[in-house]
């Protein structure tokens, strides 16, 4: 006759005695939280997120020609694949002068990609591109672009990355430039009347 096998119940935790249990000594017992009575005459402080003064509802008043366009790594790569001239195509899309801006993080990302992306690196070093220095640690370009766009609402972000687009859509007043059907398109770009154009 062998031992009877007992199957343990799935995900059973050891039961621990509560620190408020009456069986624990008075000095070791956890004290019940004491509720403070609210003073009706006291001034109630509430933290309200500060919205930038440049936004008139969803309309960004800081956006105007010449447009400053933050370029992402994959945007340059997709432009090469689609055989598009970056600056000229931007001007054709927006009907105004465009200044492509490239951050140190994006530049570092292209350099890390190596020999395969040497054409993209040569395009990024074009004198028509404006270089923006980065003061933060690390070279993750997506975080850098999101942080820069949150602080300064004067940029249009050029990207093809779905994840970055999703993050930027949450920031009001920041248009996104993307590539589709071998041409540049703009998403959420306000027209002269302040209504978003899709």
UniProtKB/TrEMBL annotation:
Short name of any one Pfam family annotated for the protein: Fcf1
Presence of keyword rRNA processing: yes
Annotated PIN domain residues: 67-166
Alphabetic keyword roster: Nucleus, Ribosome biogenesis, rRNA processing
GO cellular-component term (any): small-subunit processome
Locations listed in the record: Nucleus, Nucleolus
Primary site of residence: nucleus
Keyword DNA repair annotated: no
Disordered: annotated span: 24-43
GO BP field: ribosomal small subunit biogenesis; rRNA processing
Family classification: Belongs to the UTP23/FCF1 family. FCF1 subfamily.
Complex formation: Part of the small subunit (SSU) processome, composed of more than 70 proteins and the RNA chaperone small nucleolar RNA (snoRNA) U3.
Function: Part of the small subunit (SSU) processome, first precursor of the small eukaryotic ribosomal subunit. During the assembly of the SSU processome in the nucleolus, many ribosome biogenesis factors, an RNA chaperone and ribosomal proteins associate with the nascent pre-rRNA and work in concert to generate RNA folding, modifications, rearrangements and cleavage as well as targeted degradation of pre-ribosomal RNA by the RNA exosome.
Record protein name field: rRNA-processing protein FCF1 homolog
Origin species: Halcyon senegalensis
This protein's encoding gene: Fcf1
């Amino acid at each position: 006759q062998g031992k009877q096998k007992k199957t343990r119940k799935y995900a059973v935790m050891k039961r621990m005695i509560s620190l408020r249990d009456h069986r624990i000594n008075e000095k070791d017992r956890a004290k019940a939280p004491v509720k403070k009575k609210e003073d009706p005459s006291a001034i109630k402080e509430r933290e309200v997120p500060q919205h930038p003064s440049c936004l008139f509802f969803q309309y960004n008043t800081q956006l105007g020609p010449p447009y400053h366009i933050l370029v992402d790594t994959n945007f340059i790569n997709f432009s090469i694949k689609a055989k598009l001239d970056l600056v000229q195509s931007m001007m054709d899309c927006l009907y105004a002068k465009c200044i492509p801006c490239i951050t140190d993080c994006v530049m570092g990302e292209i350099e890390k990609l190596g020999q395969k992306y040497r054409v993209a690196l040569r395009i990024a070093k074009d004198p028509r591109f404006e270089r923006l220095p980065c003061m933060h640690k690390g070279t993750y370009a997506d975080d850098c672009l999101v942080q820069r766009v949150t602080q300064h609402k004067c940029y249009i972000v050029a990207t093809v990355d779905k994840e970055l687009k999703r993050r930027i859509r949450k920031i009001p007043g920041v248009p996104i430039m993307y590539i589709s059907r071998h041409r540049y398109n703009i998403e959420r770009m306000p027209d002269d009347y302040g209504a978003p154009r899709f």
